[in-house]
Amino acid sequence: MDIINIIDRLEALITTSTKVPATQRTILDVKKVQELMDQLRLAVPNDVRAAKEILVNKDDILNLAEAERRRTKAHAEEEFRTRINQADILKEAQRKAKEMLDDAERKSSRMLAQAETELTTRKAEVDAYAAKALRNLERQMTANLTSIRNGLALLNVADAYETVSAANGNNHDRDR
Fold first, then answer.
1. Alpha carbon separation from 39 to 43, 91, 127 (Å, rounded)
2. pLDDT score, position 173
3. Where are the domains of the chain?
4. How confident is the model at residue 80 (pLDDT cuts 50, 70, 90)?
5. Which of the four, 3, 47, 95, 148, has the lowest number of CB atoms within 10 Å?
């Protein structure tokens, strides 16, 4: 389950939970909040694994570029050897072989640079996504914790009021 889905469920829990009248407080089911937190803890490694897969793709792209460079180079060398036997066109073969090798090197360098750029971009996107998700989670959890603490404080005030009222009622009966 992905982090965004879990955060959406957490948000739904907050919006559907019982509101404390005359306040902006909400009473949350601690068990459900804890369950969602446990799911988040499990989901974060999944997102990290997804980022690792992107890094693995970098190696595949680099390997493809290297294989293409080798194929092109091998082709150029083979053509070069074939033409070397022909004295008339030796210079032309050498020039073309060098041109092909240079072209292969340029292509290889360009593909490697593109792969590095794509890797850097994807890594930055993954890092930004993870940071954003964690910041959102932190905000939600801070708000939830504040709501929980405020709800507990209200309950403690109500308990204290009932205790004082009960004590005053007993004293009032003795005075009669």
1. 6, 69, 20
2. 54
3. 3-127+150-163
4. confident
5. 95
